[in-house]
User: What shape does this take?
Amino acid sequence: QVQLVESGGGSVQAGGSLRLSCAVSIDGYDDYSKGWYRQTPGKGREFVACINEDGFIDYADDVKGRFTISRDSAKNILYLQMDALRSDDSALYYCAADRRLITYIRDLHILPKYWGQGTQVTVSS
Assistant: This one.
């Protein structure tokens, strides 16, 4: 069984920082590609960042240099450090996991199989 539980969302002013956490309950934690997506009303889920089993990391262009994804394999936690936040970063942020590489399925416009419930991030200007 796979369970993903996000936390750390909230409200912050533009230019501020937040750190999202995702507690991952999954057999074979390191065998899964894990990532973050976000969604705003009326739009589909948008790729933000991912980290593959081999440690390869990728980011969406508009978060590069501002967001940092990391994982703690001992605690089975995935993080997203978000700095220099902008109002257009406001969204519901989801943690996701898949045995397939997220970088691969993303390019095929396929969403990951497993999802958390989401945590809201609101950035005010």
Summary: The mean pLDDT is 95. Helices lie at 102-107. The first strand starts at residue 3 and ends at 7. The chain is about 5% helix and 50% strand.
